[in-house]
Write a structure and sequence with these properties.
This protein has one domain (6-472): Sodium:dicarboxylate symporter (Proton glutamate symport protein, Orthogonal Bundle), CATH 1.10.3860.10. The chain has 21 helices and no strands. The protein has helices at 6-31, 35-72, 78-109, 117-132, 152-164, 169-182, 188-192, 198-202, 211-227, 230-256, 258-274, 278-282, 286-314, 320-326, 328-337, 340-353, 359-372, 375-391, 398-412, 421-432, 440-472. The longest helix has 38 residues, at 35-72.
């Protein structure tokens, strides 16, 4: 009997995870008990955490050794500079294009205007009251409701409510992180690329890695290795290639048992986010529903129309069907983990084995992409900011939306390739056009699911660029 393909096993695991979560949450809601929720948290969710941890464990050293091995295999070091410049330019181009696609859909469909006008008026008043307390924020238009006597009672009620409202812990945490980033100065990201200690870069005190620093060290190491005399470079190159093969073998082992971990990850994540409230799982809020489907539509167009079109135009040795089939397992893993970095080992495996991209290209282009190429995240930021502005009766003009394009592109460079990193970056985008950064609380209920969708776009974009680079550069294994 023919064994079922891995991607079908993973898809079945995803579906079973969702069904399990719905059943557990429904039972908890109907019977007012947390027994199933506690069981999931104690005995199922930990296996999902193990899955993410193992992928990240493999990803960081794999990035380090694959980049060194890839650069070390180049016969002409001048190609590295050309490939590097081309890679960054294409990444910036695809990111800005993806944002423009998202802006097209959100401006044409206008999800923020599906809500009743009475609700939008209240949101507009909230915004104006916040604006009155934030002199540094620019006024975006001349509409003023708080000074209109027609709304005097409503203004007083909303002012009282806002004084009593407190931001949830997640929103406060994201705002604090964004404020700390803002205080670091305009060139902190440039300074942050250069590590003072490579071991600290690989793992800091909180167990997180700084991938930009790891990539810089790997490129630096690889460039120097290429320029060493053959007798000195050969044993180092042999060691690096051997270590690289070890980590590739490790990821192959993890991939074989991935469906079990995917079920645990999906079930644990959904049950945790829903708790005993089934409404949180099926999401009935009107604005969030419209915002979500429009964002998903934009992400689907980017991943399954725009990227295949680029493949058809610039990587003609690969058909669209071959590309979509070849990258499928990486997309499913990205959807499961919500992390480009955790998915990186699977992405490299798909690109090398299925799409036949030479390892010197994939080992250089993909790790950089997992760090600086966040097309799905940037698209999500643009759509969310414009939708929330519409929800608050604020019209963003062409120039303000171009500021969003630029800010979202720049903010995505060096963003942490971890779940929900886009929320922190969205604060920067909101502030760039004078909107309330605390609005991220509005979209928090659906952020986890949408994060899974935009990570698929991030990973697909990385694979697309690696195929394009491979088609335009004559580099052999």
């Amino acid at each position: 009997m023919k064994k079922m393909a891995l991607h079908w096993q993973v898809i079945i695991a995803l579906v079973l995870g969702v069904m399990y979560a719905v059943g557990i949450v429904y039972y908890a809601d109907v019977h007012d008990t947390k027994a199933g929720i506690n069981f999931t948290a104690d005995y199922i969710a930990p296996f999902g955490t193990i899955f993410i941890n193992v992928l990240k464990l493999i990803a960081v050293p794999m990035v380090l050794f694959s980049i060194i091995a890839g650069i070390g295999s180049l016969k002409n070091i001048k190609k590295l500079g050309r490939v590097g410049v081309k890679t960054l330019l294409i990444y910036v181009g695809t990111t800005m294009s993806a944002i423009l696609i998202g802006l097209f859909f959100v401006n044409v469909i206008q999800p923020g205007k599906f809500v009743k006008e009475e609700t939008r008026i209240e949101k507009r008043i909230e915004y104006e009251l916040w604006l009155a307390e934030t002199p540094s924020a620019p006024r975006l238009d001349n509409i003023s409701l708080i000074s209109d006597p027609t709304y005097a009672d409503k203004v007083a009620q909303i002012r009282t409510r806002m004084a009593l409202d407190t931001l949830d812990a997640t929103t406060q945490e994201k705002l604090a992180i964004a404020a700390a980033e803002k205080e670091k100065g305009p060139l902190y990201k440039l300074v942050d690329i250069f590590p003072s200690n490579i071991f600290n870069a690989i793992s800091d005190k909180e167990g997180k890695s700084n991938m930009l620093q790891v990539i810089f060290f790997a490129i630096f190491f690889g460039v120097v290795l290429v320029q060493l005399p053959q007798k000195d470079a050969k044993p180092v190159r042999k060691l690096v290639n051997g270590l690289n093969e070890v980590f590739i073998a490790m990821i192959n082992i993890v991939i074989r048992i991935m469906p079990i971990f995917v079920f645990a990850l999906m079930a644990g994540t959904l049950v945790k986010s829903a708790g005993k409230n089934l409404d949180k799982l099926i999401e009935q809020l009107y604005f969030l529903g419209h915002y979500s489907w429009i964002l998903i539509l934009a992400l689907v167009v980017v991943a399954f129309v725009y990227y295949p079109l680029l493949i058809h135009l610039f990587a003609k040795r690969i058909t669209i069907k071959q590309f979509l089939q070849g990258i499928r397992e990486a997309q499913i893993t990205a959807f499961s983990t919500s992390s480009s970095m955790a998915t990186l080992p699977v992405t490299m495996d798909c690109v090398n084995d299925n799409l036949k991209v030479p390892k010197p290209i994939s080992s250089f282009v993909l790790p950089i992409g997992a760090t600086v190429n966040m097309d799905g995240t940037s698209t999500y930021q643009a759509v969310a900011v414009v939708a929330m502005a519409q929800f608050h009766m604020i019209e963003l003009d062409f120039m303000q939306q171009m500021v969003i394009v630029l800010t979202a592109t720049l903010a995505s460079i060096g963003a942490a390739a971890v779940p929900s990193a886009g929320l922190v970056l969205m604060i920067v985008v909101l502030q760039s056009v004078g909107l309330n950064p605390a609005w991220i609380a509005i979209i928090l209920p659906v952020d986890r699911i949408l994060d899974m969708c935009r990570t698929v776009v991030n990973v697909t974009g990385d694979a697309t660029v690696s195929c394009i680079i491979a088609s335009t550069e004559n580099i052999e294994e």
